[in-house]
């Protein structure tokens, strides 16, 4: 499987479990690795034959910017769900980190991997 990736996507959003965090926006930094088969696009040189990473980025920027989750776990899972179900991506790795959320640490967050079957309806 090939991978299309997007790194260091910085988005301002409401996120956190504490009262003060519900009143401000904080920066989350997102890295994505998305499974793809790029062989056809490499033959045709056509954007229609591959996953358009700009379309993915626009959708995630819009979703995260309007969201207000408490946990990075919830945010990362919702991002993965959008990428798998709306963009027909068979595998995604999502890294979400909050800059400076823990004193003494540069960043903290979660790394998840999801596949099509994780979001298959019953
Ligand atoms: N596993 C998690 N632990 C914590 C989270 C989280 O989202 N997942 N969040 C917080 C606070 O919001 C923290 O980021 C504020 O500094 C604490 N622990």
From TrEMBL:
Q: Which domain of life is it from?
A: Bacteria
* Entry GO terms, CC: cytoplasm
Query: Pathway, per Swiss-Prot/TrEMBL?
Result: Cofactor biosynthesis; tetrahydrofolate biosynthesis; 2-amino-4-hydroxy-6-hydroxymethyl-7,8-dihydropteridine diphosphate from 7,8-dihydroneopterin triphosphate: step 3/4
Q: GO terms for biological process?
A: folic acid biosynthetic process; tetrahydrofolate biosynthetic process
Q: Where is the Dihydroneopterin aldolase/epimerase domain?
A: 4-114
* GO terms for MF: dihydroneopterin aldolase activity; isomerase activity
Q: What is its EC number?
A: 4.1.2.25
UniProt record similarity statement: Belongs to the DHNA family.
Name of the molecule in the record: 7,8-dihydroneopterin aldolase
């Amino acid at each position: 499987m090939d991978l299309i990736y997007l790194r260091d996507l910085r988005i301002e959003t409401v996120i956190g479990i504490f009262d003060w965090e519900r009143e401000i926006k904080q920066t989350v930094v997102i890295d994505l690795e998305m499974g793809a088969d790029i062989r056809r696009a490499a033959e045709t040189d056509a954007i229609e034959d591959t996953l358009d990473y700009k379309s993915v980025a626009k959708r995630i920027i819009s979703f995260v910017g309007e969201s207000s989750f408490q946990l990075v776990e919830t945010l990362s899972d919702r991002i993965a769900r959008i990428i798998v179900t709306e963009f027909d991506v068979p595998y995604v790795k999502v890294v979400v980190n909050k800059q400076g959320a823990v004193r003494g640490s540069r960043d903290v967050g979660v790394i998840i991997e999801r596949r099509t079957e994780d979001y298959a309806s019953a």
